[in-house]
Amino acid sequence: MAEAHQAVAFQFTVTPEGIDLQLSHQALTEIYLSGVRSWKKRIIRLKNSVITGVYPASPSSWLFVVIAILATMYTRSDPSMGLIAKIQEHLPVSQSMSSQCQALVSAVVFSTMLWLLLIFTMRLCLKQLLSYHRWMFEQHGKMSNTTKVWVALVRIFSGRKPLLYSYQASLPNLPLPAIKDTVKRYLESVRPLMDDEKYERMTQLAAEFESSLGNRLQWYLKLKALWAANYVSDWWEEYVYLRGRGPIMVNSNYYGMDFLHVTPTPIQAARAGNTIHGFFLYRRKLNKEELQPWLLRSAVPCCSYQFERMFDTCRIPGTLTDNVQHWQDSDHIAVYHRGRYFRLKVYQAGRLLCPREIEFQIQRILDDPSPPCKGEVHLGALTAGDRVPWANARTKYFSSGVNKRSLDCIEKAAFFVCLDDDEQGMMGDDPVASLDRYAKSLLHGKCYDRWFDKSFSVVYYKNGKTGVNGEHSWADAPVLAHLWETTLATDCFQLGYNTEGHCKGEVDTSLPRPQKLNWEIPPECEEQISQSMEVAQALADDVDFHVFVFRDFGKGKIKRCKVSPDAFIQMAIQLAYYRYRGTFCLTYEASMTRLFREGRTETVRSCTNESSAFVRALDGGEPADVCRRLFRAASEKHQNLYRLAMTGGGIDRHLFCLFIVSKYLGVDSPFLKEVLSEPWRLSTSQTAMQLQLFDLVNHPEYISCGGGLWTGQCSPPFFSLSVFVF
Predict the structure, then answer these.
(1) Among 472, 482, 502, 654, the one annotated catalytic
(2) What transmembrane ranges does the database entry give (predicted)?
C-alpha cells in the first residue's frame, strides 16, 4: 500500500476543530513536473506540425518572401500587379490606421498568400517527380540521363533537413492498375501451376469478369482511389488483420532475434536496463520527428506513417472486429515475471530513468517473492487464443473495478516486457537445436507469458539474451526492425556496461518500487483462460520450426555474379520445393509499397514460367550453359515482378480490393472467388540489416539471425520461410 499512499497528493480529515489538510509535496512535485513534461511535448508537436506543414519550404522562408516584397515596393515597383492595392481596398481596418500601415499589412497578406502558393507548387512538383519510377527498372549501376536529371530535381525540391513526416504530403497516391493488366498478369502467374484444362477454364472466367462485372467494381475503386490517400491500406488492415477471429499468436505476430554470437552482458536485469532505456531514447526521437526519413538511393522517400503507432499502442479485441488503440506518451511499461504483472514507471520527477536505475527496478521485480493472484498466471493466454472469447471475457470481467485498472496498465503501457526464467540463444552441444528453441520461444513462448495484443513485447532471458515479438496490424516488420536494430546498436555501442556487466550510472535507491497489479479473476473467467490456453498450446505444438544458419557465402558473392540476392534465394526455394514435393506451388513473397502514401505491402508471386523452366532444366540434368541462361531469365523476371509490386503494378492487392467491393455490393464473382480461395503453400520474406549501424566487416560477430513469422495466409501443408540476408 505504500505506493498507493505516495500517489495521493493531499489528504484531509474532518475534526471538531475544522478540516485538517495534509499536502504531499512529493506527489505535488510529480504532478507539476508531469505537467511541464506534457506541455513541452505539446510545444514540440506544434513546432513540428508547422515545419512539416510548410515543407519543402521552411517557416523562415516566409520572412524572406515578405522582405523581398517590401523591398520591391520600396523601389516603387508593384510585384503584385495590383493585387496589394485590391487587398488594401477590402482590408477591414480601423480609421486610426494610416495608409502606410494599411499598405504594409496588405503587403504582408499578399506575401503570405504568395508564400503558400509557392509551397503548394513545390509540393505538387515534388509529388509529380516522385511518381516517376522508371529509375527502378534500369540496370543496377547504370543510370540514364533522364534519371540523373530526375534525381537532381528531386533533391532540389526536397528541401533541407526533413523531419520524419516531412515528405508525407508530397508522396503520390497508390496508382490503381487497369483491370486488363491485372487479369493478364494473374493468368501469367498461375500458368505453371495449372494443366491446360484448368488454365483454359480460368482464362474463360477471367475474360467474363473483365468484360462485365470487373468494370463495375473498378469504377467504385476509382472513386475510392480519388478520395482516399491509399485505396488498399485501410481495407487491408481491417479485413486481413483486425477481422481475423483466429489466434494472432503464430498466425499473425512475428519475432526478432538478438545477436547470434554476442551477448553484451549475462545479467538479465542489466540487459533489460540498457535496452529499455534505448527504446525510450528512440521514442523521444520519434516524438520529436528527429528520425531520418527512409530514402531509397539517398533521394526517394518512403512513407513513414507506420511509425506513428509504434509505442503506447494495443490491439483491442472485439466480437466482429478488433481495433487498434493508440495513446500518447505513456510513462510506464508493463512487466511479466513468474505469473505476475507489474507496472514499472520509467520517468521520475520528469526525467527518464538512467539504465542503471531501470536495472535496479527490474532486479526488484526479479527478487519480488509475492505470489500471483488467483487466475493470474495464465491470464495472457486470452491474447493467444481465439479473438471472440477474449472479447467477451474482456467485456464481462475486465470492464470495471480492479481488473479494468490493471488491464489499463498493460494496454496503455509504452510496450510490454517479459522476464523469462529460461536461457536461450545459440549454445550448448547442439547449437542448431538451441536456435530452433530460441526462435519458437520468441514466436509463442509458453502461450501465456506474452501479451500478444501489444504493439511489441520484449523478452529478456536469464542468460542476458533478448528478443522481440511484434503484433502485425499496426505496421509491417521492417518498421519494428528499425526500432529493434537501433536499440541493439544503442545498447552495445552507446550505453555499454561496466566491468562487472552492470549498466553504467548511479542509482537513486529512493525510487518507488514497481507496482504489482492485482486481479480478481472469477472461476468462470479462469475456465475461459484455460480454454484459450488449450487452443494456443495446440497451435504452438503444431509449429515445426527450424533456423538454418548458412555460412558458405552471403549476398556479396551473389552480387558479384550480377544477380539479385533476393532472386537467387527465391530460385533456390523453388528448386528445393520442387525436389521435395515434385510439383510447383503458389508462392507468396512480401514487397513494400511505401513509395506511396500510407503504403504497406504487395505480393510478389515468385513461381513463374521462367522459374519453373529453370528448375525443370536443372533437375533434369540439362547442360550448365542452358541452366545458366534459364536462371538469368528467371532472376530477371522475378526482379521485374518485384519492381512492379513496389511501383503499384502488383496483382493481389488489386484483386483483394475488387473482392471487397463485390461483397459490399452483394454480388458474386466466380473469378474472384476462385482467385481468393487459391491456397498459398509457400510464404517467404527477406529482411536486410541496417548496415550503417553495424560494422560487420570488422565485427562480424554482431550479425543477427533476423526474425520471421508463420503466416496464417497459407493452407496446410505449407512452409513459411524468412531469409535474413547480409
Answers:
(1) 472
(2) 50-74, 103-126
